[in-house]
Amino acid sequence: MTVTLADIESAAALLEGRIVKTPLVPAVGLDEWGIDLHLKLENLQRTGSFKARGAYVRMSRLPADAMRQGVIAMSAGNHAQGVAYAAQQLGIPATIVMPEQTPFTKVERTRRYGARVILKGETLSESAAFAEQVAAAEALTFVHPYNDADVIAGQGTIGLEMLAALPALDVLVIPIGGGGLIGGIATAAKALKPGIEIIGVEAALYPSMQESLRGSPPSSGGQTLAEGIAVKIPGALNREIAARLVDDIILVDESAIERAVQILIESQKLVAEGAGAAGIAAIMSRPERFSGRTVGTVICGGNIDSRLLSSVLLRGLARDGKLVRIRCEISDSPGVLAKVAGLIGQCGGNIVEIYHQRLFYNVPVKLAELDAVIETRSAEHMREIIAALNAAGITARLLGGATPEGW
């Protein structure tokens, strides 16, 4: 069984008025790469990701008795909300099984659409096994997140919209998890424009589609910011489509994904989760691969935890040398702390936090060590502050993990 352009066009008719036809916008804040880049903003979809498309198409085609009985899905994130939203729209009872440690915000967002949420299992695998038990016991229809022809067709409507908005697109850069998104988009795009290039993107820790196509042993695993595409085994239907239609797959490491989330906020004023920023990470990692071409990528989701986003942004400031921690060795005498603070202020630095330690460092009894967290304009500005302190007889050095770029 495969998916055709006719299937995707039929799915588009079903979705009319039910989902947001999200905009395809030029990436005006990212034009320094020499790429005519355009972003399909599925992070603005009703549930914050593209998942509602496929879920709605799948569930709208259920027999009447199956609709009355209800559906079940297993997910820790976007698929859960997509199924819950589609069920609400169609008047279908929905049950979502989520791991016990799923963040409260994701649980509440899913419940907001009227779904019954069951927290069961420490891992996704345990949750999936329990979901299958509930499905069998209650005669519920299981809605798979990606290995389903109707789901693939629903996701493929994104490809129709992108080429309708900008027929000149040369390349599409699409994140890959289970493969439903790229499978649907590739089917639509290659049918409408056979010469278009389809590039997939996977997190380096989860190269499951690339390994599957190459016949390599699976190696996926580990903690990734792009948990939305952290899939160990791609869907069989999607693997077949990828083998025919996907031209290349780029793997992106965690630092590139993190940087892409930061850049989308700072340069485009867009909030994206790790998976949603994967396309940008790939383009940043290989700009020469796309230079001079008209490129489209899907910002496939924006459901990132607020605390995680805060950490990403603060780490980005540190990486750019705009938030630094320096250590000064000072004499333990009145007025020296004020002198250090005054010098930093004169140089235009803003002290965020300061720690004055006498007891716990291996320093002479008449000395102390002073740690200061400082906001700066750039790595160059940071160097100016440290140089000014050293010139005033105060030994100062940069602390922290990674050295800021430009240091």
From TrEMBL:
InterPro entries: ACT-like_dom_sf (IPR045865), ACT_dom (IPR002912), ACT_ThrD-II-like (IPR044561), Ser/Thr_Dehydratase (IPR050147), Ser/Thr_deHydtase_PyrdxlP-BS (IPR000634), Thr_deHydtase_catblc (IPR005789), TrpB-like_PALP (IPR001926), TrpB-like_PALP_sf (IPR036052). It comes from the Bacteria. Pfam families: PALP (PF00291). One of its GO terms (molecular function) is L-serine ammonia-lyase activity. The keyword Endoplasmic reticulum does not apply. GO terms for biological process: isoleucine biosynthetic process; L-serine catabolic process; L-threonine catabolic process. Pathway: Amino-acid biosynthesis; L-isoleucine biosynthesis; 2-oxobutanoate from L-threonine: step 1/1. Its EC number is 4.3.1.17, 4.3.1.19. Coiled coil: none annotated. It catalyses: L-serine = pyruvate + NH4(+). Keywords: Amino-acid biosynthesis, Branched-chain amino acid biosynthesis, Isoleucine biosynthesis, Lyase, Pyridoxal phosphate. Its cofactor is pyridoxal 5'-phosphate. It is an enzyme of class 4 (lyase). Residues 325-404 form the ACT domain. PROSITE patterns: ACT, DEHYDRATASE_SER_THR. Belongs to the serine/threonine dehydratase family. Catalyzes the anaerobic formation of alpha-ketobutyrate and ammonia from threonine in a two-step reaction. The first step involved a dehydration of threonine and a production of enamine intermediates (aminocrotonate), which tautomerizes to its imine form (iminobutyrate). Both intermediates are unstable and short-lived. The second step is the nonenzymatic hydrolysis of the enamine/imine intermediates to form 2-ketobutyrate and free ammonia. In the low water environment of the cell, the second step is accelerated by RidA. This is L-serine dehydratase. It comes from Oceanibaculum pacificum. The lineage of its organism: Bacteria, Pseudomonadati, Pseudomonadota, Alphaproteobacteria, Rhodospirillales.
